[in-house]
């Protein structure tokens, strides 16, 4: 496409001599602007993708892809409903759960918590918990020395345990917001439990508030179901708050939900993670789109610098253009020379930006920690951003879109100056 003559001239124009230093400065700023714009865009898009991926993994990993609730009250026939739900193709598991709020009291401290009652075997299928145990373990979870009594073992998030000063083996009290009615009035319902494990999933809200308790213990303590008001239900007659369903493809929960509703009937209400967390993920997506538009302006400004630099170069090289034209160079050759000059700046800036952006994005957590030590300040507060580590996920589609957009703007920026150089009249140029 480009002859050796055209490449040689374009290369010489990129290496302007000292008297044309101002043009070199403009070209340098254009190169730096494109490189910074591309690198920043890749880094920001990777961080936004990482945020979405990490939040999605933790939210649906803790709460399930689909939630099944009863139209009125708790699910009393939850095992039968779970068995029917498992017959749906694509459903991996269905777990009965008791979900209630409680107050954690240890010594002179108290914290609010969200208690999940779940069977020990079901909890062991949740990789997000099993793979993130920081102390203790799940071996004692759900086990009781007295077969006639529910287990009093629980596990909780690391930040909740640290805020209360709890260690493995410590006993503490759980207080239910619903009390027991006695002759002396309503008394708070309390239960002494033992901490047997501490987990850290990396999602601040879960690590600070969630407690897992054996299902039968939670049913008895919170009186979920038939004994909720009378207090006289026998063990085994309790209900469950919800059924948490995990499917093969979380992005198709709408289709699974429709099939489950048809299978289970109108006695249940089915919701999925896309509806529960819709506003949250919409905010993340809007921020991602806005940041893409804003950072694209950096590359656009750099492209305008290419335009101004090439226009000044054309004006400075008018006599050279006239001489080349009189020696036989065609208008197309002149246009390709200046197009190649400007495009080289765009291509080199884009490649440099891609390399720098990928290197920064892939090591962003290490860089964050280094900057925090250097500046002696916290740059990523877990309580604000929900996560304990800076997330990053490099998406090939985003990188490709960034590269194509940067190259496209760079090539477009060279068209007008190149066309103006090709239209130059050699006679008029030599007269000046």
Task: Please describe the structure with a list of short key phrases separated by commas or semicolons.
432 residues; alpha+beta; six-stranded mixed β-barrel; 19% strand
Order of helices and strands: HHEHEEHHEEHEEHEHEHEHHHHHHHH
Q: Structural class given helices, strands, pairing?
A: alpha+beta
Question: How many distinct folded domains?
Answer: 2
Query: Helix segment count?
Result: 17
CA(first)-CA(last) distance = 32 Å
Largest sheet: 6 strands, mixed, barrel
Tell how many strands the DSSP assignment holds: 10
Portion in helices: 40-55%
Task: Specify the overall morphology.
Answer: elongated
User: Which regions are unreliable across 5 or more consecutive residues at pLDDT < 50?
Assistant: 227-235
| Beta-strand content estimate | 15-25%
Mean pLDDT: 82
CA radius of gyration is 33 Å
Largest sheet, spatial ordering of strands: 2-3-8-5-7-6
Q: Explain this structure to me?
A:
It is built from 17 helices and ten strands. The protein has 432 residues and is an alpha+beta fold. It has two domains: 4-56 and 281-431, no CATH class; 72-265, no CATH class. It has a six-stranded mixed beta barrel with strand order 2-3-8-5-7-6. Helix 1 packs across helix 13 (331-362), helix 2 (21-63) runs antiparallel to helix 11 (278-316) and helix 2 crosses helix 13 (331-362). Residues 227-235 have low confidence and may be disordered.
Structure in a nutshell:
By secondary structure, this protein is α+β, with helices and mostly antiparallel strands. It contains 17 helices and ten strands.
């Amino acid at each position: 496409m480009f002859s050796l003559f055209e490449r040689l001239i374009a290369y010489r124009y990129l290496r302007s001599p000292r008297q044309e230093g101002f043009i070199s400065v403009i070209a340098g700023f254009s190169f730096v602007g494109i490189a910074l714009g591309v690198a920043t865009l890749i880094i920001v898009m990777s961080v936004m993708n990482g945020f979405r991926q990490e939040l999605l993994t933790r939210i649906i990993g803790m709460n399930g892809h689909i939630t099944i609730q009863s139209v009125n009250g708790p699910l009393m026939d939850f095992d039968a409903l779970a068995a029917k739900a498992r017959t749906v193709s694509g459903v991996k598991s269905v777990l009965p759960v008791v979900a209630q709020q409680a107050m954690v009291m240890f010594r002179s401290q108290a914290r609010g918590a969200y208690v999940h009652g779940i069977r020990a075997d079901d909890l062991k299928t949740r990789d997000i918990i099993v793979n993130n145990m920081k102390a203790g373990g799940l071996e004692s979870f759900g086990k009781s020395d007295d077969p006639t009594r529910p287990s009093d073992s629980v596990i909780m998030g690391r930040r909740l345990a640290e805020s209360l000063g709890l260690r493995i083996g410590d006993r503490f009290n759980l207080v239910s917001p619903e009390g027991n009615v006695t002759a002396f009035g309503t008394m708070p319902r309390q239960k002494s439990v033992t901490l047997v494990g501490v987990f850290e999933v990396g999602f601040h809200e879960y690590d600070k508030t969630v407690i897992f308790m054996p299902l039968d213990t939670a049913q008895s303590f919170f009186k979920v179901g038939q004994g909720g008001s009378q207090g006289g239900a026998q063990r085994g007659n309790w209900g469950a708050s919800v059924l948490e369903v995990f499917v093969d493809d979380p992005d198709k929960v709408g289709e699974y939900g429709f099939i489950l509703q048809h299978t289970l009937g109108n006695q249940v209400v089915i919701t999925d993670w896309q509806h529960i967390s819709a506003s949250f993920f919409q905010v993340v997506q809007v921020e991602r789109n806005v940041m893409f538009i804003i950072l694209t302006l950096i590359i656009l400004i750099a492209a305008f610098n290419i335009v101004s630099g090439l226009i000044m170069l054309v004006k400075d090289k008018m006599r050279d253009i006239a001489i080349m034209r009189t020696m036989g160079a065609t208008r197309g050759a002149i246009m390709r020379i200046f197009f190649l000059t400007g495009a080289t700046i765009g291509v080199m800036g884009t490649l440099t930006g891609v390399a720098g952006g990928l290197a920064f994005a892939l090591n962003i957590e290490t860089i964050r920690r280094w900057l925090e030590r250097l500046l002696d300040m916290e740059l990523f507060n877990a309580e604000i951003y929900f996560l304990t580590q800076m997330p990053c996920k490099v998406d090939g589609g985003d990188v490709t879109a960034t590269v194509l957009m940067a190259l496209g703007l760079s090539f477009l920026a060279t068209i007008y100056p190149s066309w103006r150089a090709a239209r130059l009249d050699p006679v008029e140029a030599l007269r000046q």
